[in-house]
Every structure is written in structure tokens, then in C-alpha cells.
Design goal:
Elements: E1 2-8, E2 13-20, E3 25-29, H1 35-41, E4 46-51, H2 57-60, H3 63-70, E5 74-76, E6 88-91, E7 97-100, E8 103-109, E9 118-122, E10 125-129, E11 132-133, E12 136-137, H4 143-157, E13 165-168, E14 174-175, H5 176-187
Parallel strand pairs: 3-4, 4-5, 5-6, 10-13
Antiparallel strand pairs: 1-2, 2-3, 7-8, 8-9, 9-10, 11-12, 13-14
Helix pairs in contact: 1-3
């Protein structure tokens, strides 16, 4: 699978174009802004899906325009559907499988950042949205949401191989192997008190 990244909007959202090179079928993940640039990045492909890792405003700003231009169906987890309910064509459930050419892309429900946050996996590539970043978990709005996000990381992401390439919703890519020691060290704490918000794995 070819992964193209363009950074869009004032908050630097990573919009990913997932491409199966043999047929040039593609999926657009998180068209947050700059519809013209999104369309330019996928103009040599046949867009089969629009996909959302979650529906925060910075990740959905160009959804309506890109959906109109591509005529591709939009998928989102039902717990995150309300902000885009006028445009949703199908729902993304835990363990859903999307077919892109001869590729299978698995959907993993990874709540915490939002109730309906999902990650997308194909072989050793993981689109993690705002669930996992280099150096820390995604922003959370309450201690309960942080615990939920940590559970998602522990149960869904950590079992993947160290070679897994992690493509987050903002910033640079990393590998699970590079992140694993710090994540596991943080998880061993067990008691996170009132911790939430923007944190790193080194938080005391």
C-alpha cells in the first residue's frame, strides 16, 4: 500500500491518501481542510472511500466538498457520526474490513480521544488518528477518557509487531517499536490520578 500524506488546515492535520498501486484505487483519510490540495494529491487515483479516524472539526473541514467532488462514500464510527451525519454513507465498526483493490484495511475501534475514534491497519501500516503520537497518547478531556485511550492502546495497538509504522493525525510518523518502551513504562504505573489533557509518556 502506498501512503501519501498532506498536511492541511491551521492545526496541521495529516490527511492520508491510501493507494493500491496496481489498480490506483484509493481511500482518503481525514480530509480536514484544503479540498483543492486533497484532490490534487489523489487526482491520479480512483477514490473508493472517504474515511474518518474521528470527527473533530479539524479533521472534517473538507468532508462535504471532497465527498461531492469524488462521489465516494463516507465512513465513520457511529459514536462519532453526529458532526457529519448529513454526509455519512456507512459506519465503521470494530473489526470492519475495507477492500481497496486487493488490499484489506482493518478498522480498530480505539476510543478515548473521542468515543468513536478508530485506527486503520494494513499489514505493518497503522493510521492511528489522534489516539497515538510519537512520545505520548492523544489529547483527552477527562481522566476517564485517558484511561479509555490507554486501554485502546494496550489492547489494540501494543499487540502489533514492533515493525508497525504508526502514522498519526498530526506530526511525524514513528514505529511501534520506538514507542513501546515508554508506553509500557507508563502503563506499569497503573494509577493515573486526575491526569488528562496533553501529556507525554514521561509525565510524573
Amino acid at each position: 500500500m502506498e501512503i501519501r500524506k498532506i498536511v492541511v488546515g491551521p492545526y496541521g492535520v495529516n490527511c492520508y491518501i491510501l493507494v493500491y498501486p496496481k489498480t490506483m484505487d484509493s481511500a482518503i483519510v481525514d480530509p480536514g481542510a484544503d479540498a483543492d490540495r486533497v484532490m490534487e494529491a489523489c487526482r491520479d487515483t480512483k477514490v473508493k472511500y472517504l474515511l474518518l479516524t474521528h470527527s473533530h472539526p479539524d479533521h472534517i473541514g473538507a468532508v462535504a466538498e471532497v465527498r461531492t467532488l469524488t462521489r465516494a462514500p463516507l465512513g465513520v464510527h457511529p459514536l462519532d457520526a453526529v458532526p457529519v451525519e448529513d454526509f455519512v454513507d456507512f459506519q465503521l465498526d470494530d473489526d470492519s474490513v475495507l477492500v481497496l483493490g486487493n488490499l484489506e484495511i482493518s478498522v480498530m475501534h480505539t476510543p478515548g480521544h473521542t468515543p468513536g475514534s478508530v485506527s486503520f491497519k494494513h499489514e505493518l501500516d497503522l493510521i492511528s488518528g489522534d489516539t497515538l503520537f510519537p512520545g505520548g497518547p492523544g489529547h483527552t478531556t477527562s481522566p476517564a477518557n485517558l484511561r479509555r485511550e490507554l486501554e485502546s492502546i494496550r489492547e489494540k495497538i501494543l499487540p502489533l509487531p514492533d515493525e508497525t509504522r504508526v502514522y498519526p493525525g498530526h506530526g511525524e510518523a514513528t514505529t511501534l517499536g520506538a514507542e513501546r518502551p515508554a508506553i509500557e513504562g507508563f502503563l506499569k504505573r497503573g494509577d493515573y490520578g486526575n491526569l488528562c489533557g496533553d501529556i507525554t509518556w514521561q509525565e510524573v
